[in-house]
Write a structure and sequence with these properties.
With 194 residues, this protein is α/β, with parallel strands linked by helices. The protein has helices spanning 47-57, 67-72, 111-122, 133-140; strands at residues 4-11, 15-17, 35-36, 44-45, 60-66, 86-90, 105-108, 126-130, 146-152, 160-161, 176-180, 183-189. The chain has one domain (4-189): Dihydrofolate Reductase, subunit A (3-Layer(aba) Sandwich). An eight-stranded mixed β-sheet has the order 7-6-5-8-1-9-12-11, sandwiched between helices. Strands 2-10 form a two-stranded antiparallel sheet. Residues 4-184 form the Bacterial bifunctional deaminase-reductase C-terminal domain.
């Protein structure tokens, strides 16, 4: 099985968006550099960020996200983001009316079932879990192997928390750190109980 990674860009004070789901300047680092991150021509980052992020993105097989994110993005028009093969949506509701059943999306009730399906689909590739409520649920359930944060030098003050409403302590190993332009990439392995 591949590694299960909790991931997002985050403010210094731990938010992935404001109360209205606006990430504000959290993604500015993705367009402020001079090295293309993908073929779109839009995403351009520093060389350090490119080397770190591209190597990670190339290993992602499946993304797990909540229904709220799915709805906000209009299901990415049926095309998984960033070249990912499949998206597993954690939801109590079925696919939207008129949804293309051939689109590489699964709608699964419960975080444990969603991560299990994602691991099956991903094989030895990474399963990425979106930060927020779903990510916090996955960490609380002991399903996360690694936490990755792209920490942006901004204080949002309030909003949607990186770990959602998680209210228990979880220990992480020491961080691996990569300094990009206007972003600090942090990678932590989750410490398992002995």
């Amino acid at each position: 099985m591949g590694t299960v990674v909790l991931y997002a860009s985050v403010s210094v004070d731990g938010f992935i968006a404001d109360e209205n789901d606006d990430p504000g300047p959290l993604f500015d680092w993705l367009t402020g550099g001079d090295v293309p991150l993908d073929d779109s021509g839009v995403l351009k980052v520093s060389q350090a960020s490119h080397d770190y992020v591209r190597a990670y993105w190339d290993r992602i097989g499946v993304t797990v996200a909540g229904r709220h994110v799915f709805d906000m993005t209009d299901g990415w028009d049926g095309i998984p983001p960033s070249g990912v093969d499949h998206v597993v949506v954690v939801t109590h509701r079925p696919a939207p009316d008129g949804w293309n059943p051939e689109a590489p999306f699964s709608f699964v009730d419960g975080i444990e079932a969603a991560v299990a399906e994602a691991q099956e689909l991903a094989g030895d590739r990474i399963v990425e879990v979106a930060a927020g409520e779903v990510g916090g649920q996955a960490l609380a359930a002991g399903l996360i192997d690694e936490v990755r944060m792209d920490v942006v030098p901004v204080v949002l003050g309030s909003g949607k928390r990186y770990f959602g409403s998680l209210d228990a302590q979880h220990l992480l190993e020491d961080a691996e750190i990569v300094q990009g332009d206007r972003v600090l990439h942090l990678r932590y392995r989750v410490r398992r109980p002995s």
